[in-house]
Amino acid sequence: MKQNEDEWLEYQNIIEDVVKRSGLDKNIFYDLRGNHDIFGVPVVGGSFDFFSKYSINGQLARRGNVNSVTLETGERKHLFIGLDTAMSVGLRGPTNLFGHPTDQLLTQLDSQLSQWDSQTNKPVTKISFGHFPLSFSASSHSGKSLKDIFLNHSISAYLCGHLHARFGKNLKRHHQSTSSQNLLSLQKFFQLNMQQIPSGSAKNCSFGAPSAEEFWEWEMGDWRKSRAMRIMAIDRGHVSYLDIDFKSGAKKTIVLPTFPLDSRFMSTSSWHQKYECQHMVPSSYETIRALVFSVSPIVSVVARIYDARPGTLNIVLETPMTKVVVDMSRGDFYAAPWNHKAFDDPSPDRFWLQIEVIDIMARSTLSELRPFSVNGLTTKISWTWKEFFVMGCQWAELYYPIFWSVIYLMLSILLIPRLLLLFSKKQYSYKSFIVEKGFFNGIAWVFQDLCRLPITWFGILGYLIYLLLFPWFIGQVFTDGEDKGYMTYMGWVVRSSNDNRNQEYIGSPDIMVVVLPHLIFVVLPATFVAGALAAERGMFKEHFLSLSGKKEDDDSGQMNKKSQVLDKQGDRRLKFYFGRRCIRKVLLVVCLGICWKHFMETKGASRLAGTKGLSLDSFSPGIDKAIGCYDAAVQELIVIDNLMSALVGIEGQYVKRVHGKEDEITFQIDASMDLALQERAKWIFPLCESYLLIDQFVESRSQFKSGVVNHAFAAALRALLLDYQAMVAQLEHQFRLGKLSIQGLWFYCQPLMGSMQALSTVVKKASANNFTGSAVLNLLQSQAKAMAGDSAVRSLLEKMTHCASNAYLGILERWVYEGVIDDPYGEFFIAENKSLHKESLTQDYDAKYWRQRYSLKEGIPSFLANIAGTILTTGKYLNVMRECGHNVQVPSSKNSKLMNFGSNHQYLECIKAAYDFASSELLNLIKEKYDLMGKLLSLKHYLLLDQGDFLVHFTDIARDELTKKLDEISVEKLQSLLDLALRTTAAAADPCHEDLTCCVERSSLLKTLGNLKDLGTRAFPDNNDLEEPMSITGLETFSLSYKVQWPLSIVISKKALTKYQLIFRFLFHCKHVDRQLCGAWQVHQGVRALNMRGTAIPRSALLCRSMLKFINSLLHYLTFEVLEPNWHMMYNKMQTAKSIDEVIQYHDLFLDKCLKECLLLLPELLKKVERLKLVCLQYAAASQWLISSSIDIPKLEEPSDVSLRSEKSKQWRSRSQSQAVKMMTQNTTVTESILKFEREFNAELQSLGPILSSNSQAEPYLTHLAQWILGIRNDQ
Fold it and tell me: Where does the Calcineurin-like phosphoesterase domain lie (predicted)?
């Protein structure tokens, strides 16, 4: 046996077609090798390794023998592991039959199965799949097996192939660990029944008691020959499957019950233990569940439970099942509640389940009738002898016991009779057998006669010894013919031409398919036949001698009378047996059979049989007679009969269908027909063509993937076609009665012509452009408007539009009344981005959740185009309330059905009413339950410094930490100090103070504003002007943050909070400058009592007062001219807001206006203000040095501590006036320093004035600030 590359090309093409048609990612497909995939492959990746070349795993470079994937849901994890146990060196068939897991593979498998055991609290369902069943899987070199690993991890199921369902339908096996340690236990070699009986049945419900180590092994059929496919489902840990046979054709509907499980093949001891101990998940038992796959929409699903106890199946429960919206399922998931305790029964096959599904085409599909047991009991199923032969026997373990049993048997029948012949006085022969008949005597006679033939006996014994010690075969092992090898009973020994090293004993126990049949069916029978021939030879010899002795007695006349009587009685029987030697002939025939068996086993190549198929041409009809040969009256009858068929899409003998360009179908009539009849027939052809187009559209758009609008439109068209077909049937009845002419046919068909052609135009455009959803509705509406002149056609198209839109309006209804998008086919004009979560509002600066979680798509139905925004907003509001756990059901008084969009525009009123309800309900929810205004007021207190007592205290205790460089600041320490300040000030009375946190930004305010490009700022200076100062500290970068929870994060988003922080940083730094200048002013006041005439201290005091006036004017402007008025304006507007969007708009408007009027969006002004603040800070820091250099006073403390400054000032007054004057005259540089600060401050202030004046014309809010600044300058 070897591989066929053409089959691999076929496989590759099929897989590519499956990937293309399904639209699935190729990476989720996984294929693995079987024994046929490595026939004759010497090296993985070589020229004969077609698997690496054509398989998906080979194309995706998956080289590992163990691959796993984990799927996680909210409740469980699902681990799928595929393993490739095929031999690394691929022998040619048939000695390539078993899986060969290595110790390395088993270690990898154990690691993959245990990867989630210690990393998750979620239960894990483990599924493994491979090619070889465990009955055809060998053990590793260390004696471990796949079964040991699977039992150790208690996987749910192992799926395998290899046997291809050729040996029966029940190729399933339940494995369970046993406590027996006996090496000779039969369970090591056989399992007599499908379900393995556990060693102990005692129930242990104690906490932490180990569950049973068990798993199911499910063999499945192949697709290529058996056309079998398996669908597997995992439902809350319950694993179920369904095998589908496609030999009988495609399935329109597939039903897979997922709970309760089939008690024959799916129940386990662990589930029984969980049920008995009440450890199972209650919710998983409360419903009957099933997956339904259908090409057409489903109308109803009904579950029926039968009771088999009376001997017949009686219905005890019939309940409808409802569709459950499950995003992870590819099919439709249905469930029905039930009282599972009512079906708790000790018999595992008393109750049977069947599910009936009816689709929109009125097709009924029944699931397989299957028994179930809610308490996890298993129905006992017995194998047939073929199923037991391939699934119940562990052939890898049986090979050597069978082999040595046959060898010992043959050595016994050869050596024991030989020893008896040599050393026993009693000899066994035909004569002794006649005297003392018995089974042992007969066997001893047969094989002692074989021993009396030394050549034969030694030949058989020598052959046995040869089979044990020498090769059985020598020759080519692989396809390429480069590697030679030989086979013994222990396996193949291959010498590779690449490295000249032997690979000893590969392919064991695969060689058993050659060794055991040869021993059992050739060598052993040949030995028995040889013994039988030897015994027959002895019998004939005795008979021949007896005949010779008889003649001598007759000649001498000494034969007694008794001998003569015996000779007469047995003469006929002896003549038959010995005269013709029939026994020898029978044995020779048996020898021929053994030789034939041996020949078939050793035959190197299988015969290929070819058959010639019959050509379809041999069945083609003869040439019909032209219709023009008939009379005109006959032609009319013939053409009417053909037209009747054409009206329902069937071509006739003389009216043929012709495929034109772009698959257009037209009808063509025989040219020999009467011209008048031809013209009248052509009048009817458009109706026939329209019917074909509509019928094809109905069939194609009834498929699963076409969408609900197409399904509804196709259903309406199907109903129309039924009426059309009824009309054709009536016309045909009239024709059979002889009452219909071709003119009459045209009379009846003419009224339908316009309607059918209009519909065919619609379906043609819809098919050509592959329209779905709203595109179909818009097409129908536009076509109806185009038919304004034909009221009948327009009415029909409007009816079709209404029918097609019912399902679409059902989606719309759920959206505007519940905030749920029930759109399985993606037809709705609102898209949902599930990757965006509400938690992102506190992290995403752009607040994409509110704008992009739900958004409008292209292709809005024309009758909803003007109100699409309202529809979007309504659902968004309802969705927010549902996310908050609030009842979002629109009151029944307003919940009118959206099933029509006629001219009365009733649907618009319904949508408007739903919008008003959702808007007011959400606004009340956020304002009242979540206290939006309270949160905004709290933000005003803390981030807009409305109540700043906590900040003064915080600044005092955090002064040392805030003056550090950025890399040295401990945010945790600042947070603890902030908490202390909040608890020890009036802020402790605010319940929201715990939501306040601190943070330290990484850049200055100017740099931050330059990086935020969406604030509407004017162009900032070049990057060189925005470079960070070298000595930036926490005072310039400190900020507060606020914890905002859902749903308030809709209003107070990350972007809004960032704007609050920008304002806070500006205010905080202005407060800091004011605080430092106040300290400097107090230092000046402390030395005011001294006579400072002739010194620079009075000039310094004037400068300090100007700086204080500047910073106080700025703070007054920011707080009383900007923040307070704008806040009250926003507060008043929010009281009258009617929707959350208006609240967001007013809030954003407030923040944007505050940013702008606080100069943060005017980079030129802001830079000047920052420069002035820097000069003020430098002056305040130098004020202590200036005064201490002017008079002889001790070194002052930091000017921020008021108590210390007052004590120092008292000490200064005690100094003598003459000593102070002396110190001033010694420090001439003080005056120069003060003058320098004064020049810098005045220069910056003077340059700021014109900028403010010019900007105040465009920005009127700057007028007051400009007046104050100019007033300061005039004072100077």
Answer: 20-165
pLDDT, the chain, mean: 76
- Return the H-helix or E-strand segment holding 494: strand 491-495
CA distances from residue 280 to 577, 884, 1188 in whole angstroms, order as listed: 76, 31, 84
Mode of pairing for the β-strands spanning 484-488 and 473-476: antiparallel
Does the structure show a pLDDT above 60 at 1044?
Answer: yes
Model-level pTM greater than 0.70? no
Nearest Cα residue to 159 out of 113, 98, 221, 105: 221
Give the DSSP H or E segment for 276: helix 269-276
Structure tokens at 80: 């799928």
pLDDT for 1195 beyond 50? no
Tokens 């129930």 identify what position?
203
Cβ neighbours around 219 below 10 Å, total: 24
Total structural domains in the chain?
5
What torsion do the CA atoms of 900, 903, 907, 910 make, to the nearest 10 degrees?
Answer: -140
For every residue of 905-946, DSSP letters joined together read -HHHHHHHHHHHHHHHHHHHIIIIIS-HHHHHHHHHHHHS-S
Calculate the alpha carbon distances from 48 to 88, 90, 95, 478, 654 in Å: 13, 10, 18, 9, 57
Measured between alpha carbons, how far is 1191 from 1219 in angstroms, rounded to an integer?
A: 7
Q: Given 865, 898, 929, which residue is the final one in a domain?
A: 929
pLDDT of residue 335: 92
The per-residue pLDDT for range 1206-1227, each reduced to its tens digit, is 555 455 454 444 454 545 444 5
Buried b / exposed e over 885-901, threshold 16 CB at 10 Å, is eeebebeeeebbebeeb
Q: Which of 1093, 1072, 1094, 1092 is CA-nearest to residue 1083?
A: 1092
Band (554; pLDDT cuts 50, 70, 90): very low
Q: How far is Cα of residue 92 from the mean position of the Cα atoms in its chain?
A: 39
Q: Could you tell me if 89 and 122 lie in one domain?
A: yes
The answer to whether residue 885 is domain-embedded is: yes
Residue 24 CA to residue 19 CA, distance in Å, equals 6
